[in-house]
TrEMBL record:
Notes on activation and inhibition: Allosterically activated by ADP and other diphosphonucleosides, and allosterically inhibited by phosphoenolpyruvate.
One of the GO BP terms on file: fructose 1,6-bisphosphate metabolic process
Cofactor(s) annotated in UniProt: Mg(2+)
Residues at which ADP binds: 21-25, 154, 185-187, 211, 213-215
Protein's recorded name: ATP-dependent 6-phosphofructokinase
Gene (UniProt): pfkA
Length: 319
């Protein structure tokens, strides 16, 4: 491998820039040329790529979003699109590609590897829904944003002795709700992975208010229901009228935490090393501090295990 490329794809996440920076600088450090592809697989098909030098990734480690931009590309879902993508890379003499993105983006990387392009996937998504890594790039920052928002809500809730339902991102994976809920002392954490009983939760909140609690926070992952639906149920079962806050896309923006920057830098550097060694079609992760390279096939067909210990801890502490 003499020349590689990097792209970001799917939903953006904080720390993608830190990953792009690390791919570029790590490759150049090892004497490998590196190209940046603009707008994900769409940009690949449009031949929207340029050589990156050391300075091209200056002043971005602290920025959210992605300087390479990202896109969703239907054409790349077809066999012809993938073939064309591989040809574009080959025409430029590029024999390795690092894809930073989620599940769908990993599928794309896998297809390219079957067409002779060596690929590596880096987990770039706030949802933490990729298997074979403890954390994905952006998750730590997203959780921090939710915790900060809940801190602010708590101030005003306590003053008014009110409760809040906070809807956070996570369609299939409740990790943002779990980590943010535990860190902010939520009374209930609703996630798609664990069944819950809104009647029991509502009555518990009512009881807690009667015992002197001055606020109540319910965090709901979007995959477990909407904030409005949950609030309606709480009103019906307990008479408590919670305020609903939907945090939405602010969870995906802002400056990445040091954890996300370090994770992105480490994963990217390792992915470059593996590519240079000739490895391909691997999703890179860190589990318990150790690098792990897992076949992309296996990564995309495995559901991330939900941390029930943390979930139960949050429940025990929410009295
Ligand atoms: P996130 O879920 O965090 O938004 P993602 O990477 O899963 O990120 P997707 O929109 O699912 O986001 O995928 C991004 C792009 O990857 C798609 O627009 C498409 O170009 C490509 N892609 C997705 N699935 C496949 C597939 N099965 N085969 C080839 N390419 C795919």
């Amino acid at each position: 491998v003499k020349k590689i490329a990097v792209l970001t794809s799917g939903g953006d996440s904080q720390g993608m820039n830190a990953a792009v920076r690390a791919v570029v600088r790590s490759a150049l450090y090892r004497g490998i040329e590196v190209y940046g592809i603009q707008r994900g697989y769409q940009g690949l098909l449009n031949q929207d790529l340029r050589p990156m030098d050391l300075r091209s990734v200056g002043d971005i480690i602290q920025r959210g979003g992605t300087i390479l931009q990202t896109a969703r590309c239907k054409e790349f879902m077809t066999a012809e699109g993938q073939q064309r993508g591989a040809e574009v890379l080959r025409e430029q003499g590029i024999d390795g590609l690092i894809v930073i993105g989620g599940d769908g983006s990993y599928h794309g990387a896998n297809k390219l590897s079957k067409l002779g392009i060596k690929t590596m996937g880096l987990p770039g998504t706030i949802d933490n829904d990729i298997a074979f890594t403890d954390f994905t790039i952006g998750f730590d920052t997203a959780v921090s944003i939710v915790v900060e928002a809940i801190n602010k809500l708590r101030d005003t809730m306590t003053s008014h002795e009110r409760s809040s339902v906070v809807e956070v991102m996570g369609r299939h994976c409740g990790d943002i709700a779990l980590y943010a809920g535990l860190a902010s002392g939520a009374e209930a954490i609703l996630v798609p992975e664990v069944p819950f009983d809104l009647k029991e939760i509502s009555l518990r909140m009512k009881d807690n208010f009667q015992k002197g609690k001055r606020h109540g926070i319910v965090v709901v992952a979007e995959g477990a229901g909407t904030g409005e639906e949950v609030a309606k149920n709480i009103i019906e079962y307990s008479g408590i009228e919670p305020r609903v806050t939907v945090l939405g896309h602010i969870q995906r923006g802002g400056t990445p935490t040091h954890n996300d920057r370090i994770l992105a830098s480490r994963l990217a550097d390792y992915a470059v090393q593996r590519l240079i060694e000739g490895d391909s079609a691997k999703g890179i992760g860190i589990i318990k501090g150790e690098f792990v390279a897992t076949d992309i096939d296996k990564v995309v067909s495995t559901k991330k295990t939900f941390n029930l210990d943390l979930y139960n801890l949050a429940l025990r502490l929410a009295q």
